[in-house]
Every structure is written in C-alpha cells, then in structure tokens.
Specification:
Layout: E1 6-9, H1 17-26, E2 30-34, H2 41-50, E3 55-57, H3 62-73, E4 78-82, H4 97-124, E5 128-135, H5 137-140, H6 146-166, E6 171-178, H7 189-192, H8 195-202, H9 213-223, E7 234-238
Helix pairs in contact: 1-9, 3-4, 4-6
Length: about 240
C-alpha cells in the first residue's frame, strides 16, 4: 500500500531507521534517508550499498533536507520522523536541566523545525503522511526518567494538535509509541546478551518478549499507507501490551 510512494526517513542509521527503510523498500516505496553521519561521502555510500534503492542525502538543516529530498525524488509523500535521544536515568533532584533541554531539542524542536519546512510542500501536493517514531513511555510514565518521558510527550502533543490543523489539507499525523523493541540505541547487543536483565525486562511485557525491528518497520509503513488514510491524531502503542 506504499508502492511508489516517497518516504523521507530521518536519523536513518538510528532507532527504527534500518527497519523502516528495509520494510519500505521491500514494499516498493522509494526512501530518501537523512542522518547526522551522511555529510560524509563514505557513510552515504555504505548506507546505499546496504539498502539498495535508498538515496542518502547529506543535508542537515531543515530547509536543506526538504530541498535535497525534493531534488532527489521530485516529491515527498510521507515523513518518518525517527527521533532518538538517550533515556537518561535521573531522579528529579539530580536531573540536569541542560540534559532536559537537549532531549527536547532532539525529540521535539528538531522535528518541529523540519515540519515547518515540509508542511507547505505537503499542502501543495494536497496530502501526505507524517509519522513520528516515538515512545510508549508517556502513556504510562517511568519513575526517574522524567526528562526523557516529558520530551517524548511533547512529540505526542504535536501529533494531537497538528492532526487537527492539517486534516483539511489531507495530511495525516500519527505516532508509533514504541517500547521494548530490539534496536541498537535502546537495546544494545550487550544488554540483549544479559540473560538476567532480559528475564527481568520481559517479565514486564504481557507478550513475554521483545518486539522485532521488522514488526516496528511494518507498523510505521502501515501508517504511511492508503490503509491508514482515516487515522490521524493517534499514538499507536507498539510495546507488547506494556502500554
């Protein structure tokens, strides 16, 4: 249902970037990939070799990202805002406000700035999809992780407001609230290899296991598809029943 569509995927080497890119390409979409590593020619070439058919762009500023993506593909049908920042454990009395500002910058301000540049394009095209790859953490809260959870909650607030603002333009805005899904940023190999830690962790998940990257990729691509055309303003928990 996304065959022929152009997906702009941010932070493509992080979090859900690989899974979304791989799934989208398998479903016949075109992928324009942004990443902080991609100003480096070698990093772009490695990514394009690993994900045949994807186009890696070096632009970093929001206006330049949109312009380079349009130059590469002629249009942008969906943005997958794949935002990532470390989940720092810090009780409120020990938390550093500068860390909170950095989390907000990475997971709310930067995607907002990109949308500021992209939404006029989607409006001219008379439609599009915006999907934030976010977290299920704001749906429940997590003690001692207030900075991370609050920054993720800011993204979910954007989903609610922008869905109402952009619906008349045929633009849907949704989020995937991910948690307990295998990825190198939040579940590195060293953690996955720790049997005691994994047993404790999966005990909290009703399905009793971690999610697979390809499951997350498929969920994101569904929200970019025709089948999700009447879904907007929604955060879809993708957390094995934890939220």
């Amino acid at each position: 249902m996304i065959e022929g569509r152009v997906l702009l995927v941010t932070n493509a080497t992080k979090f859900a970037g690989h899974a979304v890119t791989r799934t989208a390409l398998a479903q016949g979409a075109r992928v324009i990939a942004h990443d902080a590593m991609f100003p480096d020619d070698k990093a772009r070439h490695v990514f394009e070799a690993d994900f045949s058919g994807a186009v890696a762009i070096g632009a970093q500023a929001p206006a330049a990202i949109v312009a380079e993506a349009l130059a590469a593909a002629g249009r942008i049908d969906a943005l997958v805002s794949n935002d990532v920042y470390p989940a720092l454990r810090a009780p409120i009395g020990e938390a550093n406000p500068d860390d909170f500002r950095a989390a907000l910058e990475a997971m709310a301000v930067r995607p907002f700035a990109l949308l500021h540049e992209l939404v006029p394009v989607l409006r001219r095209q008379r439609g599009g999809r915006i999907v934030f790859v976010s977290s299920a953490a704001p749906l429940r809260g997590i003690a001692n992780y207030s900075m991370y959870v609050a920054a993720r909650a800011a993204t979910l607030g954007l989903v609610q407001s922008l869905a109402k603002e952009l619906g008349r333009d045929g633009i849907t805005v949704n989020a995937v609230g991910s948690n307990y899904v295998e990825n190198p940023d939040y579940f590195p190999p060293s953690l996955l290899a720790n049997a005691d830690a994994m047993k404790k962790m999966t005990a909290q998940i009703p399905l009793g296991r971690l999610g697979k990257p390809e499951e997350l990729g498929a969920t994101v691509c569904f929200l970019c598809s025709d089948g999700a055309g009447f879904i907007t303003g929604h955060t879809l928990a993708h957390a094995g029943g934890w939220a």
